[in-house]
Amino acid sequence: MRFFIRCILYFAFIGAFSFVLGRLLPKRLFDWERPPFRLFAWEREGAAYNVLGVRRWKEKLPDMSRIFPKLMPSKRLPRDMTPENLELMIRETCVAEWIHGLLCIAGFGCVFIWKRWGWVISVVYFLCNVPFIIIQRYNRPKLIRILQRRRAKESVNEKCDNFELQHGAGS
After folding, report:
1. How far apart are the first and last CA of the chain?
2. In terms of Cα–Cα distance, which of 71, 86, 70 is closest to 32?
3. Measured between alpha carbons, how far is 85 from 100 in angstroms, rounded to an integer?
4. Tell me: the pLDDT tens digits for 5-30?
5. d(C-alpha 171, C-alpha 118), whole Å
6. Which letter, b or e, does each residue of 126-148 get, where b requires 16 or more Cβ atoms within 10 Å of its Cβ?
7. Contact 124/35 with Cβ under 8 angstroms?
8. How many domains does the chain divide into?
9. Helix (H), strand (E), coil (C) string for the chain
10. At what angle do helices 118-167 and 83-106 cross, to 10 degrees?
11. pLDDT of 78-129, one tens digit each?
């Protein structure tokens, strides 16, 4: 029993450490257009995850933005979301994916704590983190599409404003 408790304490420690790390890392380091965050062709812009029914179960899992609303940005998109805010939200999906990947790997440290059952507990911990990675990869293409539409809309509005200034429209 004491080895099980040590593993749980270890998981709590790496979880708390990775949460703080995820908050402190500069978001500009996470580029969704480059590996490992860029979508693979087989993901079909996130549609591949529909086979897993992600839409049905993703809201049932714990969400740090609901647990720590003052520390984590909300996942809800307001209508007046700026492209800059959307870009930050997309980067946050990369951070969350990276942190959960890190937790998947670090979880195998339990093997050194409990020789007998450490592998089993580590594999379970690994499998418990995978759904969170899937959720980030499922959500990211949708956010990218929204960002592209907002940027295109801003570009059109900017061109219209420039046209009006150049041609004296509305004077």
Report:
1. 80
2. 86
3. 22
4. 999 999 999 999 999 999 999 999 99
5. 75
6. eeebebbbbbbbbbbbebbebbe
7. no
8. 1
9. CHHHHHHHHHHHHHHHHHHHHHHHCCHHHCCCCCCCCCCCHHHHHHHHHHHHCHHHHHHHCCCHHHHCCCCCCCCCCCCCCCHHHHHHHHHHHHHHHHHHHHHHHHHHHHHHHCCCCHHHHHHHHHHHHHHHHHHHHHHHHHHHHHHHHHHHHHHHHHHHHHHHHHHCCCC
10. 170
11. 777 888 989 999 999 999 999 999 999 999 999 999 998 999 999 999 999 9
Give the pair of three-digit tokens for residue 152. Answer: 């295109």
| Beta carbons of 83 and 71 less than 8 angstroms apart | no
Which residues 6+ apart lie within 8 Å of 91 measured at CB?
27, 28, 30, 32
Domain of residue 76 covers 2-167
The answer to whether 112 and 121 have CB atoms below 8 angstroms apart is no
Q: How far apart are CA 46 and CA 134, in angstroms?
A: 9
Number of neighbours of residue 100 by Cβ within 10 angstroms: 20
